[in-house]
Amino acid sequence: MAGLELLSDQGYRLDGRKATELRKFQARMGVFAQADGSAYLEQGNTKALAVVYGPHEMRGSRSRTLHDRAVINCQYSMATFSTAERKRRPHGDRKSTEMSLHLKQTFEAAVMTQLYPRSQIDIYVKILQSDGGNYSVCVNAATLAVIDAGIPMRDYVCACTVGFVDETPLADLCYAEEGGGVSSLALALLPRGGQIALLQMDARLHQDHLETLIEAAMTACKGVSKVLDEVVRQHLQEVSVLTGE
What we know:
By secondary structure, the protein is of the alpha+beta class. It has helices at 3-6, 94-108, 134-148, 175-178, 207-243, and strands at residues 25-29, 37-43, 46-57, 71-78, 119-129, 158-165, 168-171, 183-190, 195-201. It has a 5-stranded mixed β-sheet. A 4-stranded antiparallel β-sheet has the order 7-6-8-9, with helices on both faces. A hairpin with a 2-residue loop joins strand 2 and strand 3. Helix 2 (94-108) packs across helix 3 (134-148). The N and C termini lie far apart (55 Å).
């Protein structure tokens, strides 16, 4: 797929957005009463559900216990109906394992695990509908779920996938753009301090473009953090009304 098909001469993308424009967000927190924290997030047509349990006592092998901080356990999965291909997606496949590890690394940089020694925090994220940016949407949904669980974080951890077309960075890629031969990277950021929690690239990118793309990703992540902050504040208002506080 040529670059001109992804970005028109007028600067519009396949779905009508401008180059730096994020997809539309819709989110809800506290969707499961049984979990300690939960959130549902739609970012464009990608939809994810995140559930958090903990902090709780270590389960399974005691050898994994850390005496100075909590262990973060992340599990990523995709619903069978999440894509046009109706194939079985086992939990233990390579892509799911890799994504689970990326989520674990991301939240280890954001969650204040030192407050909960010898304990465990479980984060489960499921993609219900996939249309690009799966890692980013999972991070954003899980951030809301961790906040809903009342677990302290250093900052919101926000993620976005960006690509490069015709010397122009594109923010928050959809599936068609990701599959269009675009050089892309996914970045997770703690926006207030500008700390990068994770940077992932699946394709080659010329080093001259790397700095531009990282700057575009950081700007997009800061935009995501504003959206997530609005969601959290709205949720707090709703909870306050329900509890009469």
